Amino acid sequence: MRITVDRSRCEGHGLCExxxxxxxxxxxxxxxxxxxxxxxxxxxAAAIRxxxxxxxxxxxxx
Length: 62
Ligand code: SF4
Description:
With 62 residues, the chain is an alpha+beta fold. The protein has helices at residues 15-19, 44-53; strands at residues 3-5, 24-27, 30-33, 59-61.
């Protein structure tokens, strides 16, 4: 699983950080990934929570 942030959509609400603090940090107006590559197995549920909580659908998991 990978997670991506569409910076053109992200408005920096920060809800994703609350849902997945080990994966995302909302900073300077948009979310930053805190890791590279595949989402660790123990963080995949958090990644899905982050996608669902984003109010403008700026996050995507593939
Ligand atoms: S919740 Fe969505 S809009 Fe807010 S910082 Fe995260 S990705 Fe950006």
